[in-house]
Amino acid sequence: MFRINLDTTLMTPKERVHSALQRKPTDRVPIFMWYHPQTSKRLAKLLEIPAEYVSLAMGDDIRQRWVSNNYAMEAIVHERDGQSHVDEWGIEWTRTHGFNQISKYPLADAGEKQVLNYRLPLDQIDSLVDLMKPIMKFKDDYFIGCDVSPCVFEMYWRLRGMEKTLMEMILNPDLTAKMLKRSTEFSIALSEAACQRFALDWLWLGDDAAGQHSMLMSPDTWRRMVKPFLKQNADVGKKYGLYVAFHSCGAIRPIITDLIEIGVDVLNPIQCNCPGMNPLELKKEFGKNLAFMGGVDTQGVLPNGSAAQVRKATADLLKGMTADGGGYIFAASHTVPPETPDRNIFAMYDEAGISKEEIFDKAAQIRRSLKE
User: Fold this and answer.
1) Statement to judge: residues 158 and 302 lie in one domain
2) Of 201, 222, 240, which marks where a domain is finished?
3) What is the pTM of this model?
4) Contacts 24+ apart (CB under 8 A), 4-13
5) How does pLDDT run across 92-132, given as a tens digit for each residue?
6) Do 311 and 351 contact (CB within 8 A), yes or no?
């Protein structure tokens, strides 16, 4: 059985994350960093390991897999811009500037009857949940997450198109409500199957509700049309005694109290450049009831600053976000972009408690383990 014990400290990665989420002392802050595919490819070459092992070498404490539509967006990596694939939902994805973007919405031109006749791929539940299998070999030592996002609004607009979905929330709310309900039922079915089959530590929900400057809809509309369905998703995690993590990009400050109310334990990614999303301010206001994951500035300091500036920004973030002894997982506010200098990446990790030498040692251990 493949197994790598990369951690030589007193705490295992699983223990480290659990302790942080319980506001208990840890030997270092837990880490869960995301990389742009090109950044991951560059680090893999530098470390001389396959790209899928980069996060392991860099000291991530969490092993997580997408089992829903985000798998089609994130996990299928095309070599060149312009290459495409169609997923189980009938959504066409095309690589654009290094990322998969939706190039065809299956319900974009559908009439109301066609929309109501659409069926989410419930017959694929087993094969989708099977995507968890490769990471379960880490379950004894690492914190295990299952990502069932997108869950409600975001799942539907990926089928219909963002603009049309937002318009129909106003002009045809009954149709929208029916499709949001179906999206929710699908994510609940995935969640139930994953929770029953695997030993998870958290259930990861996701439903982007905001842009860079404001929410995509009014907070009241979100509360009326999305919040009740999202609570049903969170209830599954609570039913199985798991932490519930929630991802939404953008300026979601107006609904953070609502997220706490429905049972969210961990909020990600804290896009610090968006209005109302200063990590330290959020920590002071909500830190007693909510843990945070993210907040590293991937638009300004990390890719464009000096190594010294990155160190200072990292130190300030860690000090403020762990002021109560925990409640924080060190992570980026978005994927680490390809223009980020290697020296800045290693300066950030060193400030978080993992030296460059440790990273290269872990990479060497991975290489040895893969040869055994």
Assistant:
1) no
2) 240
3) 0.94
4) 4/56, 4/365, 4/366, 4/369, 5/141, 6/56, 6/57, 6/59, 6/362, 6/365, 6/366, 7/141, 12/141, 12/142, 13/60, 13/61, 13/62, 13/141, 13/142, 13/143
5) 999 998 889 999 999 999 999 999 999 999 999 999 999 99
6) yes
